[in-house]
Design a protein that fits this description.
Length: about 160
């Protein structure tokens, strides 16, 4: 039986979860060889959708690591910029509005550092119909399927 370190708390500001930790039944060496690695950055409320996304991408021969933002402030920008440089792209998914949100802000921070292969998912600044959680996330394009599509799209772009 192989055991892996599932949760890695980073500077007490976030939780880094490797693709190899979510897809534990797959050989770690095989997963690490995969190209086009993407980082999925989420706010805590989207953890179950993000975990499902990582699992689905692993099953499709892709690779995506997960960074869960425990706290939005204070945020270690230097650490985050260095982390992002290890990936072909970064997808931000938050359960808040895009305009003025943390995903938009961090995408801008990366752009100032010549890293532009990013995608921000969240709620547009509009009213949404009522529905259950899954329906509302689908309407807002932040469902597990929308995250998967965004990860695949940024993974296919060349920086």
């Amino acid at each position: 039986i192989t055991t892996r370190n599932f949760w890695r708390v980073v500077n007490r500001k976030g939780i880094f979860i490797s693709c190899t930790d979510i897809c534990m039944e797959m050989p770690e060496v095989e997963l690490e060889k995969r190209s086009k690695k993407v980082l999925l950055v989420i706010t805590g409320g989207l953890f179950s959708e993000a975990k499902k996304t990582v699992r689905s991408i692993c099953d499709d021969n892709g690779y995506v690591d997960l960074y869960v933002m425990r706290f939005i402030k204070p945020f270690d920008e230097t650490y985050f910029i260095d982390l992002a440089k290890n990936y072909e792209g970064v997808v931000f998914a938050e359960d808040g509005v895009i305009k003025g949100g943390i995903g938009e802000y961090l995408s801008g921070v990366l752009a100032k550092n010549q890293y532009t292969n990013t995608k921000v998912l969240g709620f547009d600044d509009k009213y949404y119909s009522q529905g259950n959680r899954e329906e509302v996330l689908t309407m807002a394009n932040i469902s597990s399927e929308a995250m998967k599509k965004a990860v695949k799209n940024v993974g296919n772009k060349i920086r």
